[in-house]
Amino acid sequence: MLLREVVEAADAVSRTASRKAKIGVLAEVLRRLTPEEVPSAVGLLLAKPRQGRLGVGWRTLAAERSHAPTATLGVLDVDAAFDRLAVATGSGSAARRQTELDALAGAATAGEWDFLSRVILGELRTGALEGVLLDAVALAADRPAASVRRAAMLSGDLGEAAAVALFDGPDALEDVGLVVGRAVLPMLAATASSAADAVAATGDSSVEYKLDGARIQVHRDGDEVRIFTRTLADVTHRLPEIVDTVRGLPVRSAIFDGETLALDEDGAPRAFQETMARFGSETATAVALRPWFFDLLHLDGRDLLDEPLHVRQAELQRVAGEWRVPAVRTADPVVAEETARAALAAGHEGVMVKGVDAAYQAGRRGKSWLKVKPVLTFDLVVLAVEEGSGRRSGLLSNLHLGAHDPDGAFGPPGGFVMVGKTFKGLTDRLLAWQTAHFPTIETSRSAHTVHVRPETVVEIAIDGVQRSTRYPGGVALRFARVKGYRPDKTPAEADTIDALRALLRG
DNA sequence: TTCCGACAGTGGGGTCGCAAT
DNA sequence: ATTGCGACCCCACTATCGGAA
């Protein structure tokens, strides 16, 4: 298939808001692919190349390039070019990447290059990603969407599931199952405002400590152990101590779901940043990571995915009890709240509340898993606003937030110290208001940023703060979002940098 | 007819490795 | 040695479509 056909389909998908129409367009393209084209075409349509990330970002793409007058590139030509980009490494690789990009751009029309650029950056913005494409595969292959979804989630690869659905017959699709050693998409959680509310929704529940680390999925098959992240990257080589731990468990084969984090000398959890410094490093070993498991998807030849949580937990307790996340089974909101308080007192993030009768829904953000974390709010002052992009083009979106510095510890007394940005929590109405308001108090303007007089107070919710080298106050907001503007407050009444810094020591 | 589940999009801070400077 | 880029950990929230109720 020609790349042009994929690009035209993507353009058609962009032009309609109707999901059914998007699905129809995509299904038509999928039907015309050959088997060997399916994984790369799916990679293009999801802006997730089959090869993974190509080591090319917006900066590398910024160079001016010339294009072909007519469309001759095939889907497999692009796939081959992506192969060459993905393997470019070592001294001189940046120049080789540029050469390769020049060649690809030169073989593509201007419209095709615009599309390929978005694929390479990983942001197609056509309003169709995994969810929509999965339905399109089901339509094109005339198979139940649930079967395609299950195959995609259990193989961790929609491209592979699509190829099976389209070409290998109904039985082959149903036969795609859990394989020890092959990563499965992890189940995700929705948010609840309190442990009591969460238990009210999930009934008989497992209330578990929510740890502030990195998600891990650990597979063991005999002596072979593999560890995957939430996005299914293989990080086995970085976590030898977890490999050893799992090798020591009394199982032949198993798939564990859990979290890993670093503890300090007293056994208290270290800051997320310290866990990540170890988790992300190829060489650091000074800080040990330990696993905490909360689910078991497979044990000694038996898939447990469809078993209720309490059955999976009983098996987990039996084979890896000492590595389990602390958990309390209850339907009592009072007990759930007590557990949440205990989790926080032990230095953890909050709790997860899970219905004990629910199956493991790979890749879904279901209502049977609810996360509960405390929310803090602060009144801060807007220092600047950035122009939005995509659907926020033409609107002032991302706010620069400052805390009051009455004593001048980080600048002139009575000034404001930037502590973070946020674009979250804004409704269309607030975006429109911001866009009208901030230019009226503009002091200067740089490329995409309007700097303003520090007189607009906004209430911001955060999960906490972290140490920062980026911001002058040494502290940055974590997961900041707008709750609403506070026209009733003056900038002098805003919360102080000291109040935020105090959270660092909390 | 109204409600709500699932999705897509919009970006946030921090950390690492690596190549270029 | 330092800097900039890219990948990837963590993540919240709103708008929208279309099936469920």
Report on the architecture of this protein:
The protein is an alpha+beta fold. The chain folds into three domains: 3-172, DNA ligase i, domain 1 (Orthogonal Bundle); 187-372, DNA ligase/mRNA capping enzyme (D-amino Acid Aminotransferase, Chain A, domain 1), CATH 3.30.470.30; 376-501, Beta Barrel (OB fold (Dihydrolipoamide Acetyltransferase, E2P)). The chain contains 18 helices and 19 strands. The protein has helices spanning 3-15, 19-31, 38-46, 58-61, 75-87, 93-107, 110-121, 130-141, 145-155, 158-167, 169-175, 195-202, 240-247, 272-279, 309-320, 333-345, 428-437, 497-505; strands at residues 188-191, 205-210, 214-221, 224-228, 253-262, 289-299, 302-303, 327-330, 350-355, 365-372, 376-387, 396-405, 415-422, 442-446, 449-452, 457-462, 464-467, 475-478, 481-485. The strands form four sheets. Strands 11, 12, 13, 14, 15, 16 and 19 form a seven-stranded antiparallel β-sheet that branches. A five-stranded mixed β-sheet has the order 1-10-9-2-8, covered by helices on one side. β3 (214-221) and β4 form a beta hairpin. α3 packs across α10 and α10 (158-167) runs antiparallel to α11 (169-175). The longest helix has 15 residues, at 93-107. It is globular and about 70 Å long. The N and C termini lie far apart (59 Å). 39% of the residues are buried. The structure holds a DNA duplex (21 and 21 nucleotides).
